[in-house]
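Predicting holo structure, S-adenosyl-L-homocysteine bound.
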Amino acid sequence: MAAHMLISEANRRGIGMTSQRTRERLIARLCEAGITHPDVLRVMRELPRHLFVDEALASRAYEDSPLPIGHGQTISQPYTVARMTQTLLEHGPCDTVLEVGTGSGFQTAVLAALVRRVYSVERIASLQDCAQQRLRLLKVRNVRFLYGDGFLGWSDYAPYDGILVTAAPRGVPRVLADQLAPTGTLVLPMGEGDRQVLMRVIRTADGFEQLVLEPVSFVPLIAGVA
Ligand code: SAH
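Done. Tokens:
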């Protein structure tokens, strides 16, 4: 057997042996950190995060930390994915969701398991291709992908019950808020450097209601496509 095959076989077995225990430890940690939504916890327990990172990092996939996915981008920390998803779902029924920043596709897969349809925009084509392949492998079929600038949202399918942004703009992009359905929820990181916060924006009868949730650390939302 070729060396790289041996390595990948060892990796697979390593994952096989440790995954159940480390996955349960991760779920316990999410619960302690305030994730209470049973469906969110179920999906976080079931989804194989190790398939969303490079094989060399697979053994760390069930740690509660962000990991590099290439192009200077990261797969978000599991806690953050769970927190954002829970925030999106707890305000009301969520049928259609726009995701800005597909990245590895992990958050996309979490959303796809919980809502009817997900629309996901990414500005780096190769990341989007990989994400699309992963979701195909996992037989996730309710996601549409757009290669484009998420600052513009995706007007073709608007309005959305929920919009989730996984990279940080400096302020709430008005175009995205405008693509929210009445009573829809936008969840996004906002700000620069080490002064970012997670925000929830809800569309109301008179405009928008903003709530600051907690400090976070995301890559910046960058205008235009790569
Ligand atoms: N949810 C992803 C996060 C990836 S990091 C995951 O967990 O894997 C954020 C992603 O947002 C990167 O892939 C980056 O390329 C993308 N991004 C940044 N600015 C963007 C923009 N204007 N439009 C679309 N995607 C953008």
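The pocket of S-adenosyl-L-homocysteine is lined by residues 69, 73-76, 100-101, 103-104, 106-107, 121-124, 127, 149-151, 166-167, 219, 221-223 (CB under 6 Å).
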